């Protein structure tokens, strides 16, 4: 039996969760004060995902704040960063504009407005 300890990040309570597993199968989840905490723990041990926030170079040399519009598999975060670093945003750019499509089930979008100068 394996135990994984984690802190729930779904709400400000930050419950200390314990997930017990037999191989890949979850046998129990404890420490959560709500159902959302149990769902978070289950997802975190079976298929962890992350929203990536970063910056992208612009065609004028400035940097632009960007992020994934949906979480991606945690195992793909470094590959996603490689794609962001290899791309250059063409100005002008508006908040929410898709800069790179279909990156591990997500899109890379601008999180700020940037005009050509």
Provide key terms for this protein:
alpha+beta, elongated, 117 residues, three-stranded antiparallel β-sheet, 2 helices
Notes on the structure:
By secondary structure, the chain is of the alpha+beta class. Helices cover 19% and strands 41% of the residues. It is built from two helices and ten strands; from the N terminus they run βββαββββαβββ. It has helices spanning 35-46, 77-86, and strands at 2-7, 16-22, 25-30, 49-50, 53-58, 63-68, 72-73, 88-89, 98-103, 106-110. A five-stranded mixed β-sheet has the order 8-5-6-10-9. Strands 1-2-3 form a three-stranded antiparallel β-sheet, with helices on one face. The longest helix is centred in the middle third of the chain and has 12 residues, at 35-46. The protein is elongated. The chain starts with a strand and ends in a 7-residue tail after the last strand. The model has no long low-confidence stretch (mean pLDDT 96).
| Share of residues in strands | 35-45%
**Biggest sheet record:** 5 strands, mixed
User: Largest beta sheet: what is the strand line-up?
Assistant: 8-5-6-10-9
Q: Structural class of the secondary structure composition? A: alpha+beta
Number of helices: 2
**What does the radius of gyration come to?**
18 Å
- Spell the H/E element sequence: EEEHEEEEHEEE
What gross morphology would you assign? elongated
Mean pLDDT: 96
Low confidence ranges: none
Number of strands: 10
- Terminal residue distance: 60 Å
Helical content, roughly?
10-25%
């Amino acid at each position: 039996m394996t135990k994984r300890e984690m802190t729930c990040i779904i709400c400000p309570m930050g419950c200390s969760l314990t997930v017990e597993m037999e191989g890949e199968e979850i046998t129990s989840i404890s420490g959560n004060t709500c159902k959302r905490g149990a769902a978070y723990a289950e997802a975190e041990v079976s298929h962890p995902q992350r929203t990536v926030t970063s910056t992208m170079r612009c065609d004028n040399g400035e940097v632009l704040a960007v992020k994934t519009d949906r979480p991606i598999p945690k195992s793909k975060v470094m590959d996603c960063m490689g794609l962001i670093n290899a791309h250059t945003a063409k100005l002008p750019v508006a908040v929410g504009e898709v800069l790179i499509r279909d990156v591990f089930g997500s899109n890379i979008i601008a999180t700020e407005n940037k005009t050509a100068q």
